[in-house]
Amino acid sequence: MYIIRQKTPREDELTVQSERQIIGFESRELGKVEEFQLTPVALERFRFSGTDNGLVVMTDTNEERFLYPEESSFKVFNKSLQHESGGRKWSEKSKRQKSMLTVIHEIEAYINQHPISNALTATELEEWHQMMKNHQQPLRDFYYSDKIRKFARSHEIQKKRHYAQLCAKERKYIISQGNQKPVMFVGDRGYGSGSTIKSHVRYGGPWKPRMHSNFTTVCLTNEHNSSQTCIFCFKKILYPVAVVMKNNRTNRGSFLCVNPDCVSVRSSMTTHSRDTISAHAIALSGIGTLLFGVTFPPFDPKPSQEKAERFIAAARHFSA
Prior knowledge:
Elements lengths: L8 H10 L2 E2 L7 E3 L3 E2 L8 E8 L3 E7 L10 E4 H7 L2 H14 L1 H12 L8 H13 L1 H8 L2 H29 L6 E7 L19 H6 L4 E5 L19 E4 L2 E4 L3 E3 L6 H4 L4 E3 H19 L12 H15 L1
Parallel strand pairs: 1-3, 2-8, 4-7, 7-8
Antiparallel strand pairs: 4-5, 5-6, 9-10, 11-12
Helix pairs in contact: 3-7
């Protein structure tokens, strides 16, 4: 008979913390923030930033300043990215070529009207497969023609070039001195990629953190409560509500702190941009985990009294 002693959560956390990788000035990594650590001695050699992913604003990156958070940020909009990377030009050229060949337009319209989800039986599924097989050759002749392949190749080259320039501008925004290295914290609750939502194009994805990881360290950070917590007092926030034509309309693009003891309320600056403050919250959460091994209690998805005491003790030792 074997007795297996289960590890307590405290022992698991100590084991993970002992295996954390130390970030150096030449480090170029991509991974979860719990996998890295940073010594307070090397803190002045790095500049930190937080990135929040969204729908209209693909990414909102903000340089983290502990005393005076910046309201301005480096924003990347999906529509501007579509235009500057050549996506709109490629779409217009493909539509123009399709308009010259009415057969391709009719085939695609017919396929859209008969999706595979309408096939409920094996016979209907076989009919749908035969239909796709009959239209296979005309579509291949169009999309693999020399002209379309030339358009696609030029668009791919332009997109890669613009993505590299965009990431270089973002890293340049983060660092203010040439002898500092950026450490980027990116939210892990989705990259804003996939199908369109309310006609908004979605160009997000893991490509941006991966390109940044070729030059610096990128930490994927849990963005729990990042858009629901005031970074000045760590209390819950409210979304302002406006009455428009006798209807209540909630403004989701900004938040309002109602804590009378909050610094922002006393300074008459209660309203802030949601994406910008969320980026700050992601950076604060990542920095706490990077330095102390445990994040701020308001941003912890599984808070406990033990974690709060560890964080307070580590913060006191850091500020001493």
